[in-house]
Protein backbone atom coordinates (compact mmCIF):
# COMPACT_ATOMS: atom_id res chain seq x y z
CA UNK A 1 0.00 0.00 0.00
CA UNK A 2 3.05 2.25 0.16
CA UNK A 3 1.65 3.97 3.26
CA UNK A 4 -1.26 5.49 1.32
CA UNK A 5 -4.81 5.25 2.55
CA UNK A 6 -7.39 4.45 -0.13
CA UNK A 7 -11.15 4.71 -0.30
CA UNK A 8 -12.59 1.19 -0.19
CA UNK A 9 -15.28 2.10 -2.71
CA UNK A 10 -13.54 4.02 -5.54
CA UNK A 11 -9.97 3.02 -4.49
CA UNK A 12 -8.66 6.58 -4.80
CA UNK A 13 -6.02 7.91 -2.42
CA UNK A 14 -7.25 9.70 0.71
CA UNK A 15 -5.30 12.32 2.62
CA UNK A 16 -4.69 10.79 6.04
CA UNK A 17 -3.47 14.03 7.58
CA UNK A 18 -6.95 15.46 7.08
CA UNK A 19 -8.54 12.41 8.76
CA UNK A 20 -11.09 12.12 5.98
CA UNK A 21 -13.99 9.96 7.14
CA UNK A 22 -16.04 10.55 3.99
CA UNK A 23 -14.40 10.09 0.60
CA UNK A 24 -14.38 13.45 -1.23
CA UNK A 25 -14.43 11.61 -4.57
CA UNK A 26 -17.41 9.27 -4.21
CA UNK A 27 -18.92 10.06 -0.77
CA UNK A 28 -18.22 6.59 0.66
CA UNK A 29 -18.23 6.54 4.48
CA UNK A 30 -16.13 3.68 5.78
CA UNK A 31 -17.56 3.71 9.31
CA UNK A 32 -21.08 3.04 8.03
CA UNK A 33 -20.04 0.16 5.78
CA UNK A 34 -20.78 -3.30 7.22
CA UNK A 35 -18.99 -6.10 5.41
CA UNK A 36 -20.73 -8.99 7.16
CA UNK A 37 -19.22 -11.99 8.89
CA UNK A 38 -18.74 -13.96 5.68
CA UNK A 39 -16.81 -11.22 3.88
CA UNK A 40 -13.21 -10.13 4.08
CA UNK A 41 -13.01 -6.77 5.88
CA UNK A 42 -11.88 -3.81 3.76
CA UNK A 43 -8.13 -3.26 3.95
CA UNK A 44 -7.26 -6.97 3.78
CA UNK A 45 -4.35 -7.69 1.44
CA UNK A 46 -3.57 -10.72 -0.73
CA UNK A 47 -0.40 -12.11 -2.33
CA UNK A 48 2.03 -10.39 0.04
CA UNK A 49 0.33 -7.03 -0.19
CA UNK A 50 -0.02 -6.83 -3.95
CA UNK A 51 -3.82 -6.73 -3.92
CA UNK A 52 -5.85 -4.54 -1.56
CA UNK A 53 -9.44 -5.62 -0.83
CA UNK A 54 -12.19 -3.00 -0.82
CA UNK A 55 -15.94 -3.27 -0.29
CA UNK A 56 -18.08 -6.22 -1.38
CA UNK A 57 -19.55 -5.91 -4.86
CA UNK A 58 -21.71 -9.04 -4.88
CA UNK A 59 -22.15 -12.44 -3.26
CA UNK A 60 -23.58 -15.66 -4.64
CA UNK A 61 -23.75 -19.32 -3.75
CA UNK A 62 -20.18 -19.99 -4.94
CA UNK A 63 -18.24 -16.91 -3.94
CA UNK A 64 -17.89 -13.28 -3.00
CA UNK A 65 -16.67 -10.52 -5.33
CA UNK A 66 -14.87 -7.44 -4.03
CA UNK A 67 -13.48 -4.30 -5.59
CA UNK A 68 -9.71 -4.32 -5.29
CA UNK A 69 -6.53 -2.43 -6.10
CA UNK A 70 -3.47 -3.88 -7.83
CA UNK A 71 -0.49 -2.15 -6.21
CA UNK A 72 1.90 -3.53 -8.83
CA UNK A 73 0.04 -2.38 -11.94
CA UNK A 74 -1.76 0.46 -10.11
CA UNK A 75 -5.31 -0.04 -11.33
CA UNK A 76 -8.66 -1.22 -10.03
CA UNK A 77 -9.57 -4.90 -10.25
CA UNK A 78 -12.37 -7.24 -9.24
CA UNK A 79 -11.43 -10.01 -6.79
CA UNK A 80 -13.56 -13.19 -6.79
CA UNK A 81 -13.15 -15.38 -3.70
CA UNK A 82 -14.17 -19.04 -3.82
CA UNK A 83 -16.62 -19.22 -0.91
CA UNK A 84 -19.45 -21.80 -1.13
CA UNK A 85 -21.41 -20.31 1.76
CA UNK A 86 -23.50 -23.42 2.46
CA UNK A 87 -20.48 -25.58 3.19
CA UNK A 88 -17.85 -23.23 4.68
CA UNK A 89 -17.40 -20.50 7.26
CA UNK A 90 -14.76 -17.84 7.95
CA UNK A 91 -12.62 -17.61 11.05
CA UNK A 92 -12.71 -13.92 11.99
CA UNK A 93 -11.21 -14.27 15.47
CA UNK A 94 -7.54 -14.80 14.57
CA UNK A 95 -7.38 -14.82 10.81
CA UNK A 96 -9.58 -14.69 7.75
CA UNK A 97 -9.06 -18.31 6.73
CA UNK A 98 -11.97 -20.36 5.38
CA UNK A 99 -12.85 -23.62 7.14
CA UNK A 100 -15.15 -26.35 5.83
CA UNK A 101 -18.22 -27.21 7.91
CA UNK A 102 -19.40 -30.19 5.85
CA UNK A 103 -18.80 -32.07 2.62
CA UNK A 104 -15.05 -31.40 2.72
CA UNK A 105 -14.34 -33.72 -0.22
CA UNK A 106 -16.94 -31.93 -2.34
CA UNK A 107 -15.64 -28.47 -1.41
CA UNK A 108 -12.04 -29.47 -2.13
CA UNK A 109 -12.95 -30.95 -5.50
CA UNK A 110 -15.01 -27.94 -6.51
CA UNK A 111 -12.22 -25.60 -5.47
CA UNK A 112 -9.77 -27.48 -7.69
CA UNK A 113 -12.26 -27.17 -10.54
CA UNK A 114 -12.62 -23.46 -9.77
CA UNK A 115 -8.87 -22.96 -10.35
CA UNK A 116 -8.56 -25.43 -13.22
CA UNK A 117 -11.35 -23.96 -15.25
CA UNK A 118 -10.21 -20.40 -14.46
CA UNK A 119 -7.04 -21.25 -16.37
CA UNK A 120 -9.12 -22.34 -19.33
CA UNK A 121 -11.09 -19.10 -19.16
CA UNK A 122 -7.81 -17.20 -19.15
CA UNK A 123 -7.17 -18.63 -22.60
CA UNK A 124 -10.44 -16.98 -23.73
CA UNK A 125 -9.17 -13.51 -22.78
CA UNK A 126 -9.15 -12.48 -26.43
CA UNK A 127 -12.90 -13.08 -26.66
CA UNK A 128 -14.47 -9.60 -26.40
CA UNK A 129 -17.65 -10.77 -24.67
CA UNK A 130 -16.00 -12.41 -21.64
CA UNK A 131 -14.53 -10.74 -18.57
CA UNK A 132 -10.71 -10.87 -18.62
CA UNK A 133 -8.89 -12.83 -15.88
CA UNK A 134 -5.62 -11.20 -14.82
CA UNK A 135 -4.32 -13.54 -12.13
CA UNK A 136 -5.13 -16.64 -10.07
CA UNK A 137 -4.24 -17.11 -6.39
CA UNK A 138 -4.54 -20.81 -5.71
CA UNK A 139 -4.11 -20.93 -1.93
CA UNK A 140 -4.51 -18.06 0.47
CA UNK A 141 -6.75 -17.97 3.55
CA UNK A 142 -7.32 -21.67 2.80
CA UNK A 143 -9.26 -20.81 -0.35
CA UNK A 144 -8.65 -19.50 -3.89
CA UNK A 145 -9.07 -16.16 -5.65
CA UNK A 146 -9.51 -14.88 -9.20
CA UNK A 147 -8.24 -11.41 -10.09
CA UNK A 148 -10.36 -10.03 -12.94
CA UNK A 149 -10.78 -6.79 -14.82
CA UNK A 150 -13.20 -4.43 -13.10
CA UNK A 151 -16.09 -3.62 -15.39
CA UNK A 152 -17.87 -0.36 -14.74
CA UNK A 153 -21.36 0.16 -16.06
CA UNK A 154 -24.77 -1.37 -15.42
CA UNK A 155 -25.98 -4.96 -15.53
CA UNK A 156 -28.72 -5.87 -17.98
CA UNK A 157 -31.02 -6.21 -14.97
CA UNK A 158 -30.29 -2.62 -13.95
CA UNK A 159 -30.65 -1.47 -17.55
CA UNK A 160 -34.00 -3.23 -17.86
CA UNK A 161 -35.18 -1.72 -14.57
CA UNK A 162 -34.63 1.73 -16.10
CA UNK A 163 -37.17 0.77 -18.80
CA UNK A 164 -39.74 -0.45 -16.29
CA UNK A 165 -42.52 1.70 -17.69
CA UNK A 166 -41.97 0.80 -21.35
CA UNK A 167 -41.33 -2.35 -23.38
CA UNK A 168 -37.76 -3.06 -24.46
CA UNK A 169 -37.68 -3.31 -28.23
CA UNK A 170 -37.02 -6.93 -29.29
CA UNK A 171 -34.36 -5.82 -31.77
CA UNK A 172 -32.49 -3.96 -29.04
CA UNK A 173 -32.69 -6.96 -26.72
CA UNK A 174 -31.34 -9.22 -29.47
CA UNK A 175 -28.45 -6.84 -30.16
CA UNK A 176 -27.58 -6.77 -26.45
CA UNK A 177 -27.52 -10.57 -26.26
CA UNK A 178 -25.64 -11.22 -29.53
CA UNK A 179 -22.11 -10.84 -27.98
CA UNK A 180 -23.14 -13.15 -25.13
CA UNK A 181 -24.27 -15.89 -27.52
CA UNK A 182 -21.11 -15.52 -29.61
CA UNK A 183 -18.93 -15.71 -26.50
CA UNK A 184 -20.74 -18.78 -25.22
CA UNK A 185 -20.01 -20.54 -28.51
CA UNK A 186 -16.30 -20.18 -27.73
CA UNK A 187 -16.80 -21.25 -24.10
CA UNK A 188 -18.58 -24.42 -25.19
CA UNK A 189 -15.85 -25.17 -27.73
CA UNK A 190 -13.41 -25.20 -24.79
CA UNK A 191 -15.56 -27.83 -23.09
CA UNK A 192 -17.01 -25.52 -20.41
CA UNK A 193 -20.50 -24.63 -19.26
CA UNK A 194 -21.30 -21.31 -17.58
CA UNK A 195 -24.46 -22.48 -15.75
CA UNK A 196 -25.22 -19.06 -14.24
CA UNK A 197 -26.28 -16.81 -17.13
CA UNK A 198 -28.81 -14.22 -16.00
CA UNK A 199 -29.44 -10.47 -16.43
CA UNK A 200 -27.42 -9.63 -13.31
CA UNK A 201 -24.39 -11.52 -14.67
CA UNK A 202 -24.22 -9.61 -17.95
CA UNK A 203 -22.62 -6.17 -17.87
CA UNK A 204 -23.33 -3.28 -20.22
CA UNK A 205 -20.08 -1.36 -19.78
CA UNK A 206 -19.60 2.38 -19.96
CA UNK A 207 -17.76 1.89 -23.26
CA UNK A 208 -20.95 0.16 -24.56
CA UNK A 209 -19.39 -3.31 -24.66
CA UNK A 210 -21.48 -6.23 -23.38
CA UNK A 211 -19.57 -8.77 -21.26
CA UNK A 212 -20.48 -11.97 -19.48
CA UNK A 213 -19.50 -12.08 -15.79
CA UNK A 214 -19.13 -14.56 -12.95
CA UNK A 215 -17.84 -17.92 -14.10
CA UNK A 216 -17.86 -19.20 -10.53
CA UNK A 217 -20.41 -21.87 -11.45
CA UNK A 218 -18.59 -22.92 -14.63
CA UNK A 219 -17.86 -26.63 -14.99
CA UNK A 220 -16.53 -29.01 -17.61
CA UNK A 221 -19.16 -30.53 -19.87
CA UNK A 222 -17.97 -34.04 -19.05
CA UNK A 223 -18.07 -33.48 -15.28
CA UNK A 224 -20.21 -35.89 -13.27
CA UNK A 225 -20.27 -33.63 -10.20
CA UNK A 226 -22.62 -30.67 -10.53
CA UNK A 227 -23.50 -28.74 -7.40
CA UNK A 228 -25.23 -25.41 -7.84
CA UNK A 229 -27.77 -23.10 -6.31
CA UNK A 230 -29.97 -22.34 -9.29
CA UNK A 231 -31.65 -19.05 -10.11
CA UNK A 232 -35.17 -20.35 -10.44
CA UNK A 233 -36.33 -18.06 -13.27
CA UNK A 234 -33.22 -18.56 -15.43
CA UNK A 235 -32.15 -22.17 -14.79
CA UNK A 236 -33.52 -25.28 -16.53
CA UNK A 237 -34.90 -28.26 -14.56
CA UNK A 238 -31.78 -30.41 -15.07
CA UNK A 239 -29.82 -27.81 -13.09
CA UNK A 240 -31.99 -27.89 -9.99
CA UNK A 241 -30.23 -27.74 -6.63
CA UNK A 242 -29.64 -31.17 -5.14
CA UNK A 243 -28.71 -31.56 -1.49
CA UNK A 244 -25.84 -33.92 -0.68
CA UNK A 245 -27.05 -37.52 -0.64
CA UNK A 246 -30.33 -36.77 -2.42
CA UNK A 247 -30.98 -39.06 -5.35
CA UNK A 248 -31.89 -37.83 -8.81
CA UNK A 249 -35.48 -38.38 -10.01
CA UNK A 250 -34.47 -39.27 -13.53
CA UNK A 251 -31.49 -39.67 -15.78
CA UNK A 252 -32.36 -36.45 -17.63
CA UNK A 253 -31.75 -34.35 -14.51
CA UNK A 254 -28.07 -35.33 -14.60
CA UNK A 255 -27.58 -34.32 -18.21
CA UNK A 256 -26.20 -30.82 -18.33
CA UNK A 257 -24.68 -29.54 -21.54
CA UNK A 258 -24.67 -26.55 -23.92
CA UNK A 259 -28.48 -26.74 -23.92
CA UNK A 260 -28.36 -25.80 -20.21
CA UNK A 261 -26.81 -22.43 -21.07
CA UNK A 262 -29.17 -22.10 -24.06
CA UNK A 263 -32.12 -22.19 -21.65
CA UNK A 264 -30.56 -19.44 -19.49
CA UNK A 265 -29.84 -17.21 -22.52
CA UNK A 266 -33.44 -17.57 -23.77
CA UNK A 267 -34.81 -16.93 -20.28
CA UNK A 268 -32.72 -13.75 -20.13
CA UNK A 269 -34.05 -12.66 -23.53
CA UNK A 270 -37.57 -13.37 -22.26
CA UNK A 271 -36.91 -11.13 -19.24
CA UNK A 272 -35.55 -8.25 -21.33
CA UNK A 273 -38.38 -8.31 -23.89
CA UNK A 274 -41.28 -9.12 -21.57
CA UNK A 275 -40.10 -6.89 -18.74
CA UNK A 276 -40.57 -9.72 -16.27
CA UNK A 277 -39.08 -13.14 -15.66
CA UNK A 278 -40.70 -16.26 -17.04
CA UNK A 279 -42.23 -18.86 -14.72
CA UNK A 280 -39.60 -20.98 -12.99
CA UNK A 281 -38.72 -24.26 -14.64
CA UNK A 282 -39.64 -26.16 -11.47
CA UNK A 283 -43.08 -24.56 -11.39
CA UNK A 284 -43.58 -25.39 -15.06
CA UNK A 285 -42.56 -29.02 -14.40
CA UNK A 286 -45.17 -29.27 -11.64
CA UNK A 287 -47.83 -27.74 -13.91
CA UNK A 288 -46.88 -30.15 -16.69
CA UNK A 289 -47.24 -33.14 -14.36
CA UNK A 290 -50.59 -31.92 -13.02
CA UNK A 291 -52.30 -30.64 -16.17
CA UNK A 292 -50.23 -32.05 -19.00
CA UNK A 293 -49.58 -28.53 -20.33
CA UNK A 294 -46.60 -26.17 -20.06
CA UNK A 295 -47.55 -23.02 -18.13
CA UNK A 296 -44.98 -20.77 -19.90
CA UNK A 297 -46.76 -17.58 -20.96
CA UNK A 298 -46.10 -16.77 -24.65
CA UNK A 299 -43.67 -13.89 -25.08
CA UNK A 300 -46.03 -12.01 -27.41
CA UNK A 301 -48.52 -11.62 -24.54
CA UNK A 302 -46.14 -9.15 -22.89
CA UNK A 303 -44.76 -7.43 -25.99
CA UNK A 304 -46.81 -7.00 -29.16
CA UNK A 305 -43.69 -6.31 -31.26
CA UNK A 306 -42.56 -9.93 -30.91
CA UNK A 307 -42.76 -11.84 -34.20
CA UNK A 308 -44.01 -15.46 -34.29
CA UNK A 309 -40.55 -16.59 -35.41
CA UNK A 310 -38.82 -14.84 -32.51
CA UNK A 311 -41.35 -16.24 -30.04
CA UNK A 312 -40.83 -19.71 -31.47
CA UNK A 313 -37.03 -19.42 -31.17
CA UNK A 314 -37.14 -18.26 -27.53
CA UNK A 315 -39.74 -20.82 -26.45
CA UNK A 316 -37.85 -23.62 -28.23
CA UNK A 317 -34.76 -22.68 -26.23
CA UNK A 318 -36.80 -22.92 -23.00
CA UNK A 319 -38.37 -26.33 -23.58
CA UNK A 320 -38.28 -28.38 -20.36
CA UNK A 321 -37.19 -31.66 -21.98
CA UNK A 322 -33.59 -31.40 -23.10
CA UNK A 323 -34.18 -33.80 -26.01
CA UNK A 324 -36.59 -31.27 -27.58
CA UNK A 325 -34.72 -28.09 -26.62
CA UNK A 326 -32.36 -26.10 -28.87
CA UNK A 327 -29.14 -28.07 -28.52
CA UNK A 328 -26.36 -25.52 -29.06
CA UNK A 329 -25.52 -21.83 -29.20
CA UNK A 330 -24.85 -22.13 -32.94
CA UNK A 331 -28.37 -23.43 -33.49
CA UNK A 332 -29.82 -20.71 -31.26
CA UNK A 333 -27.88 -18.03 -33.15
CA UNK A 334 -29.32 -19.26 -36.45
CA UNK A 335 -32.85 -19.28 -35.04
CA UNK A 336 -32.56 -15.76 -33.64
CA UNK A 337 -30.40 -13.88 -36.15
CA UNK A 338 -30.53 -15.72 -39.46
CA UNK A 339 -34.30 -16.06 -39.82
CA UNK A 340 -35.57 -13.21 -42.07
CA UNK A 341 -39.09 -13.38 -40.61
CA UNK A 342 -37.74 -12.50 -37.18
CA UNK A 343 -37.25 -8.94 -38.27
CA UNK A 344 -33.85 -9.14 -36.59
CA UNK A 345 -31.65 -8.89 -39.70
CA UNK A 346 -32.61 -6.41 -42.37
CA UNK A 347 -29.74 -7.75 -44.46
CA UNK A 348 -31.36 -11.18 -44.52
CA UNK A 349 -34.62 -9.67 -45.79
CA UNK A 350 -32.73 -7.76 -48.47
CA UNK A 351 -30.83 -10.91 -49.41
CA UNK A 352 -34.10 -12.80 -49.86
CA UNK A 353 -35.54 -9.95 -51.96
CA UNK A 354 -32.40 -9.99 -54.09
CA UNK A 355 -32.76 -13.74 -54.67
CA UNK A 356 -36.36 -13.27 -55.80
CA UNK A 357 -35.30 -10.49 -58.21
CA UNK A 358 -32.57 -12.75 -59.58
CA UNK A 359 -35.01 -15.64 -60.11
CA UNK A 360 -37.51 -13.29 -61.74
CA UNK A 361 -34.78 -12.06 -64.09
CA UNK A 362 -33.92 -15.60 -65.12
CA UNK A 363 -37.61 -16.37 -65.70
CA UNK A 364 -38.05 -13.29 -67.91
CA UNK A 365 -34.86 -14.12 -69.82
CA UNK A 366 -36.23 -17.62 -70.44
CA UNK A 367 -39.51 -16.22 -71.75
CA UNK A 368 -37.59 -13.97 -74.13
CA UNK A 369 -35.57 -16.90 -75.48
CA UNK A 370 -38.73 -18.94 -76.04
CA UNK A 371 -40.28 -15.98 -77.83
CA UNK A 372 -37.28 -15.59 -80.13
CA UNK A 373 -37.29 -19.29 -81.03
CA UNK A 374 -41.02 -19.28 -81.74
CA UNK A 375 -40.70 -16.15 -83.87
CA UNK A 376 -37.93 -17.77 -85.94
CA UNK A 377 -40.01 -20.89 -86.54
CA UNK A 378 -42.98 -18.81 -87.57
CA UNK A 379 -40.95 -16.73 -90.06
CA UNK A 380 -39.42 -19.84 -91.58
CA UNK A 381 -42.75 -21.57 -91.93
CA UNK A 382 -44.12 -18.61 -93.84
CA UNK A 383 -41.56 -19.15 -96.69
CA UNK A 384 -41.79 -22.93 -97.12
CA UNK A 385 -44.52 -25.46 -96.98
CA UNK A 386 -44.84 -27.89 -94.15
CA UNK A 387 -43.89 -30.80 -96.40
CA UNK A 388 -40.85 -28.97 -97.73
CA UNK A 389 -39.77 -28.06 -94.24
CA UNK A 390 -39.96 -31.67 -93.11
CA UNK A 391 -37.93 -32.76 -96.16
CA UNK A 392 -35.26 -30.18 -95.37
CA UNK A 393 -35.03 -31.39 -91.84
CA UNK A 394 -34.56 -35.00 -93.00
CA UNK A 395 -31.71 -34.01 -95.30
CA UNK A 396 -29.88 -31.98 -92.64
CA UNK A 397 -27.00 -33.58 -90.83
CA UNK A 398 -27.35 -34.07 -87.07
CA UNK A 399 -26.17 -31.04 -85.09
CA UNK A 400 -23.60 -31.82 -82.41
CA UNK A 401 -24.53 -30.60 -78.95
CA UNK A 402 -21.92 -28.25 -77.52
CA UNK A 403 -21.47 -28.77 -73.78
CA UNK A 404 -21.26 -25.69 -71.59
CA UNK A 405 -17.75 -24.88 -70.53
CA UNK A 406 -18.75 -21.98 -68.21
CA UNK A 407 -16.60 -21.63 -65.12
CA UNK A 408 -18.28 -22.23 -61.75
CA UNK A 409 -17.64 -19.79 -58.91
CA UNK A 410 -18.18 -20.10 -55.17
CA UNK A 411 -18.98 -17.08 -53.00
CA UNK A 412 -16.47 -16.37 -50.23
CA UNK A 413 -17.19 -14.92 -46.77
CA UNK A 414 -16.13 -11.30 -46.32
CA UNK A 415 -18.23 -10.50 -43.23
CA UNK A 416 -16.03 -9.09 -40.47
CA UNK A 417 -13.26 -7.99 -42.85
CA UNK A 418 -12.13 -4.40 -43.39
CA UNK A 419 -13.34 -2.91 -46.68
CA UNK A 420 -9.85 -2.88 -48.22
CA UNK A 421 -9.26 -6.46 -47.16
CA UNK A 422 -12.63 -7.56 -48.55
CA UNK A 423 -11.99 -5.79 -51.87
CA UNK A 424 -8.70 -7.67 -52.21
CA UNK A 425 -10.35 -11.00 -51.40
CA UNK A 426 -13.08 -10.41 -54.00
CA UNK A 427 -10.49 -9.97 -56.77
CA UNK A 428 -10.66 -13.72 -57.36
CA UNK A 429 -14.22 -13.17 -58.65
CA UNK A 430 -13.17 -10.45 -61.10
CA UNK A 431 -13.87 -12.55 -64.22
CA UNK A 432 -17.27 -13.77 -63.00
CA UNK A 433 -19.15 -10.80 -64.53
CA UNK A 434 -20.43 -10.04 -61.03
CA UNK A 435 -21.09 -6.37 -60.26
CA UNK A 436 -19.99 -5.46 -56.73
CA UNK A 437 -21.93 -2.67 -55.03
CA UNK A 438 -20.76 -1.16 -51.73
CA UNK A 439 -23.31 0.29 -49.31
CA UNK A 440 -22.97 1.74 -45.83
CA UNK A 441 -25.26 0.89 -42.95
CA UNK A 442 -25.49 1.68 -39.22
CA UNK A 443 -24.68 -1.12 -36.79
CA UNK A 444 -24.49 -1.23 -33.00
CA UNK A 445 -22.32 -4.37 -32.94
CA UNK A 446 -19.95 -4.18 -35.92
CA UNK A 447 -17.13 -1.63 -35.87
CA UNK A 448 -17.06 1.20 -38.37
CA UNK A 449 -15.38 0.20 -41.64
CA UNK A 450 -15.91 -3.54 -41.20
CA UNK A 451 -18.16 -5.63 -43.45
CA UNK A 452 -21.58 -6.01 -41.89
CA UNK A 453 -23.16 -8.46 -44.35
CA UNK A 454 -23.25 -9.58 -47.98
CA UNK A 455 -26.25 -10.12 -50.25
CA UNK A 456 -25.02 -13.49 -51.60
CA UNK A 457 -24.52 -16.06 -48.86
CA UNK A 458 -21.03 -17.59 -48.47
CA UNK A 459 -20.77 -20.94 -50.25
CA UNK A 460 -23.28 -20.05 -53.01
CA UNK A 461 -22.20 -21.45 -56.38
CA UNK A 462 -22.99 -19.95 -59.82
CA UNK A 463 -21.77 -19.93 -63.39
CA UNK A 464 -20.17 -16.87 -64.97
CA UNK A 465 -22.81 -14.33 -65.98
CA UNK A 466 -25.70 -16.02 -64.17
CA UNK A 467 -25.67 -13.61 -61.23
CA UNK A 468 -26.06 -9.88 -61.64
CA UNK A 469 -24.62 -8.13 -58.60
CA UNK A 470 -23.24 -8.58 -55.12
CA UNK A 471 -24.10 -5.97 -52.49
CA UNK A 472 -21.62 -5.54 -49.63
CA UNK A 473 -22.81 -3.64 -46.56
CA UNK A 474 -20.08 -1.75 -44.69
CA UNK A 475 -20.73 -0.71 -41.09
CA UNK A 476 -21.10 3.00 -40.41
CA UNK A 477 -20.79 2.33 -36.70
CA UNK A 478 -23.42 3.20 -34.15
CA UNK A 479 -26.27 5.55 -34.93
CA UNK A 480 -27.18 5.78 -31.28
CA UNK A 481 -24.78 6.03 -28.36
CA UNK A 482 -25.15 5.34 -24.67
CA UNK A 483 -24.18 8.10 -22.30
CA UNK A 484 -21.25 7.05 -20.05
CA UNK A 485 -20.93 7.83 -16.34
CA UNK A 486 -18.90 11.04 -15.94
CA UNK A 487 -20.19 12.22 -12.58
CA UNK A 488 -17.32 12.19 -10.11
CA UNK A 489 -14.67 12.13 -12.85
CA UNK A 490 -12.09 14.82 -13.56
CA UNK A 491 -13.00 17.25 -16.34
CA UNK A 492 -10.35 15.86 -18.70
CA UNK A 493 -11.52 12.28 -18.13
CA UNK A 494 -15.14 13.32 -18.70
CA UNK A 495 -14.14 14.88 -22.03
CA UNK A 496 -12.34 11.68 -23.02
CA UNK A 497 -15.26 9.41 -22.11
CA UNK A 498 -17.82 11.52 -23.95
CA UNK A 499 -15.59 11.86 -27.00
CA UNK A 500 -15.09 8.10 -27.05
CA UNK A 501 -18.89 7.66 -26.95
CA UNK A 502 -19.20 10.02 -29.98
CA UNK A 503 -20.89 12.73 -27.92
CA UNK A 504 -20.21 16.47 -27.55
CA UNK A 505 -19.60 18.14 -24.21
CA UNK A 506 -20.58 21.51 -22.82
CA UNK A 507 -18.79 22.43 -19.58
CA UNK A 508 -20.27 24.73 -16.96
CA UNK A 509 -18.28 25.55 -13.83
CA UNK A 510 -19.85 26.38 -10.49
CA UNK A 511 -18.76 26.58 -6.88
CA UNK A 512 -19.46 23.52 -4.76
CA UNK A 513 -18.74 23.05 -1.09
CA UNK A 514 -18.20 19.29 -0.91
CA UNK A 515 -16.93 18.27 -4.37
CA UNK A 516 -13.23 19.06 -4.98
CA UNK A 517 -12.27 21.48 -7.72
CA UNK A 518 -12.07 19.99 -11.20
CA UNK A 519 -14.50 17.09 -10.66
CA UNK A 520 -17.84 16.68 -12.39
CA UNK A 521 -20.77 17.42 -10.08
CA UNK A 522 -23.63 16.52 -12.43
CA UNK A 523 -24.41 15.60 -16.04
CA UNK A 524 -27.48 16.66 -18.04
CA UNK A 525 -28.34 13.20 -19.43
CA UNK A 526 -28.47 10.18 -17.17
CA UNK A 527 -25.79 7.53 -17.70
CA UNK A 528 -26.96 4.57 -19.78
CA UNK A 529 -29.50 6.55 -21.84
CA UNK A 530 -29.54 6.05 -25.62
CA UNK A 531 -29.02 9.26 -27.58
CA UNK A 532 -28.05 10.14 -31.14
CA UNK A 533 -24.40 10.60 -32.06
CA UNK A 534 -22.97 14.09 -31.45
CA UNK A 535 -25.65 14.90 -28.87
CA UNK A 536 -24.47 17.68 -26.56
CA UNK A 537 -24.08 16.59 -22.93
CA UNK A 538 -23.81 19.40 -20.39
CA UNK A 539 -21.65 18.73 -17.34
CA UNK A 540 -21.15 20.91 -14.27
CA UNK A 541 -17.57 20.98 -13.01
CA UNK A 542 -16.82 22.06 -9.46
CA UNK A 543 -14.81 25.24 -8.90
CA UNK A 544 -14.31 24.25 -5.28
CA UNK A 545 -15.58 26.21 -2.27
CA UNK A 546 -16.84 29.73 -2.87
CA UNK A 547 -14.74 32.03 -0.69
CA UNK A 548 -17.29 34.82 -1.00
CA UNK A 549 -20.34 32.80 0.03
CA UNK A 550 -21.41 31.73 3.51
CA UNK A 551 -21.54 28.12 4.56
CA UNK A 552 -25.33 28.07 5.01
CA UNK A 553 -25.89 29.61 1.61
CA UNK A 554 -23.79 26.88 -0.01
CA UNK A 555 -25.62 24.07 1.77
CA UNK A 556 -29.04 25.36 0.69
CA UNK A 557 -28.18 26.19 -2.92
CA UNK A 558 -29.37 24.15 -5.85
CA UNK A 559 -28.04 23.78 -9.33
CA UNK A 560 -30.02 23.80 -12.54
CA UNK A 561 -28.96 22.06 -15.72
CA UNK A 562 -30.64 22.94 -18.96
CA UNK A 563 -30.78 20.62 -21.92
CA UNK A 564 -31.90 17.40 -20.24
CA UNK A 565 -33.42 14.69 -22.39
CA UNK A 566 -37.01 15.87 -21.97
CA UNK A 567 -36.06 19.50 -22.58
CA UNK A 568 -36.96 20.61 -19.04
CA UNK A 569 -34.76 21.99 -16.31
CA UNK A 570 -33.26 19.45 -13.96
CA UNK A 571 -32.84 20.55 -10.35
CA UNK A 572 -30.07 18.72 -8.52
CA UNK A 573 -29.50 19.22 -4.79
CA UNK A 574 -25.93 19.66 -3.59
CA UNK A 575 -23.97 16.45 -3.07
Structure overview:
This protein has 575 residues and is an alpha+beta fold. It contains twelve helices and 27 strands. The chain has helices at 104-122, 156-162, 170-189, 258-274, 281-291, 308-316, 329-337, 346-383, 386-395, 419-425, 491-500, 551-556; strands at 5-6, 13-14, 45-46, 51-59, 63-70, 75-82, 88-90, 98-100, 133-140, 143-149, 153-155, 192-193, 202-205, 210-212, 219-220, 408-410, 435-441, 451-454, 461-463, 469-475, 480-482, 504-510, 520-523, 530-532, 536-542, 559-561, 570-572. The strands form ten sheets. The protein has a six-stranded antiparallel beta sheet with strand order 3-4-5-6-10-9, with helices on one face. Helix 3 runs antiparallel to helix 4 and helix 3 (170-189) runs antiparallel to helix 7 (329-337). The radius of gyration is 31 Å and the shape is globular. Mean pLDDT is 78; it is low at 241-253, 343-349, 382-387, 389-404 and 551-575.
Question: What's a quick, concise take on this entry?
Answer:
The chain has 575 residues and is of the alpha+beta class.
Tally of DSSP β-strands: 27
Structural class: alpha+beta
Gross geometry = globular
Helix content: 25-40%
* Structural Rg: 31 Å
**C-alpha termini separation:** 29 Å
Helix count, DSSP H or I runs of 4 or more residues: 12
Largest sheet: 6 strands, antiparallel
- Give the strand order, joined by hyphens, for the main sheet: 3-4-5-6-10-9
Features:
575 residues, alpha+beta, six-stranded antiparallel beta sheet, three-stranded antiparallel beta sheet, 12 helices, 27 strands, disordered C terminus
